[in-house]
Amino acid sequence: MSTEIPTKVIEELIKDMDKDKAMIDMLNKLLLLYKSGAFDTAVELLMTVKNVSSVITDSMIDNLALTLRELAPLIDALANNPLLKLLGESLNDTEVDKAIIKAKEKGVSLGDVIGLMRNNDVLTGLYVFLTVMKSLGRKVREFKAEG
To answer: Is 42 contained in some domain?
Structure first.
């Protein structure tokens, strides 16, 4: 497959330029690319693209499109899930960073964990976590019953 630029377009592009200077500039850039190895890399990359494009079939593209279509509702559900948003924000909380540093440097005792259980935010988070685990367990049981 070759594409040609119409002669009129080329003439329009170069009418105001010094053709000799433009040719020397182009050769200088090609030599720079050649000396640096970038030219060979670009040629290899283009050959790889050519080879890959000759292997990819229309049915492969169709199958990829169907797979993406099936994944779209899952991706949408994940992107719009408030629990995941809250979890992401929680992981970026400075308190989590402090807890990781403390656990790494000093270790964590059972007393530390029990102390956290007195915190209302911990109880709320644990309640949500256990509710998710309950739902997951129910889904696993339903999955086992189907199979």
So the answer is: yes
* 27 within a domain of the structure (yes/no): yes
Residue 17: left (phi > 0), alpha (psi -120 to 50), or beta?
beta
The 3-class SS string of 91-134 reads HCCHHHHHHHHHHHHCCCCHHHHHHHCCCHHHHHHHHHHHHHHH
Number of domains in the chain: 2
Answer yes or no: is 16 within a domain: yes
Q: H-helix or E-strand containing 86?
A: helix 82-91
**Identity (one letter) of the amino acid at 28?**
N
Contact (Cβ atoms closer than 8 angstroms) between residue 128 and residue 134: no
Q: Are residues 51 and 4 in the same domain?
A: yes
Each residue's pLDDT tens digit, 71-116: 998 888 888 888 888 888 999 999 999 999 999 999 999 999 999 9
Domain that residue 23 falls in? 1-55
Distances (CA, A) of 80 to 36, 77, 134, 146: 47, 5, 22, 29
pTM exceeds cut of 0.85: no
